[in-house]
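Quick one: Mannitol 2-dehydrogenase from Roseibium denhamense, structure tokens please.
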Amino acid sequence: MDELIPLSNTNLGRLPSTVRAPQYDRTKLTPGIIHIGLGNFHRAHQAWYLHRLFDAGLNHDWAILGAGVRSYDKDQRDKLLAQDCLTTLIELAPARSSAEIIGSMIDYIPIENGNTALIERMADPAIRIVSLTVTEGGYYIDPVTKAFDQTHPDIEHDAKNPDRPLTVFGALVAALARRKASGSGPFTGLSCDNLQGNGHILQQAVVSLASMSNPALARWIEEECSFPNSMVDCIVPATGMKEIDLARSFGVDDAAPVTHEPFRQWVIEDDFCAGRPDWEKCGATFTGNVQTHETMKIRVLNAGHQLLANAGEILSIETISEAMAHPLIGAFFRKTAIQEIAPHVAPVPEMTAEAYIDLIAARFANPAIIDTTRRVAFDGSSRHTGFLLPTLREALAADTPVDGLALAEAIWARMCYGIREDGSVISPNDPNWDALKNAAIQAKSDPAVWLAQHNIYGRLANDLRFKTVFERRLRQIWREGLEAALKDYLVSEATAYRASHGMDARLS
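--- reply ---
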């Protein structure tokens, strides 16, 4: 490509014919949504659905205002404002790639101490939905009890200083207080994070925080606001120079392009107190049964990501597709998913658990998606507790196989030691990294130390069946290496267990 076109409103008409441009007049868009946590996933997923509605000539009063509550969001804001909040989306299919420019976001709210500008914009009655992607670990919930952590210093600050909050939830409470006082009405809070019952969790955070300083406001929020559950799905790698260069190969100079797989899914509970866009007209699914879709996705895709990424990190495998192609790691994912996870996943109308595992395996294997094991392994303390341990608890209660799930926890413990099998260092990759690494170091000689992390395992540490398998597998990994442990799992205990219980012992 000879000429690079800087991404901006004025240059939309100059884009190469191979790049799909917005089919609507962005100057006619007005805001209806504020999205907090404007990372790659939001732009490849929720923002795309809205963009396609705009392309169809619909819902032009529902444009997005971007927002953040942390200082590190300022760099992203600067990049996006410099290009009029436009984003190049690059779809990476195994055989080809394609690009389009999305324009559903029209501004980015200033990021400042006390979140004054964000609160003011959320208090505007034109804003009818506030959506969030703040990561699974960003909801201040105890991973064992699932209760809101009212003792966290950030939360205590917001309860004492409701007009100058630190957290996104404090900002939501402050904005809703203004709307209640002005009579401008509630808005819908829409979580788009990978949490089972994410709407309920968001409601718990907002109402619990409000109750600490203003019980009357908390009751009003609970009665008037909506917090629909939703399930979101699209594999979206992080952006680096490779992705920026890929955008340039299409002739577009974009400081923050986004790559994504050729698959999206959005399943939403239809509970919006102040209206919503017609997302069903561009592929979203509205249902009263989000939980079943959620469970399938979280327990297969998100849990499967941890099975691949943790093992890949230990063996110095850089990407998820390479981990899936590894004969032992890929087989570990498939066997654990089919024999230990699928029995605890109900089918949805269009998909059985087994068919979904095949779909996820194909998506994981897509070599065009350069999704690093490091990115996927980030924040294991939230992801293991949210994605893997619920299935483990159900399997133990049902007396079904758990050897692969226990091995997955042993692999995570080995990864948190911080040194790969080739001697290279694994850099800190979890908000609780120091505590995890300390436990992992001690667990090398005493595996029970790892399970003694009550904030992660709770009563699971006392389950003899899980504890026995976990400790043996972690000792085996340290003694013989990860590949030996994987080989042993693929031919041994789960198969023997199934045979002893009169079950089909065939390896899948």
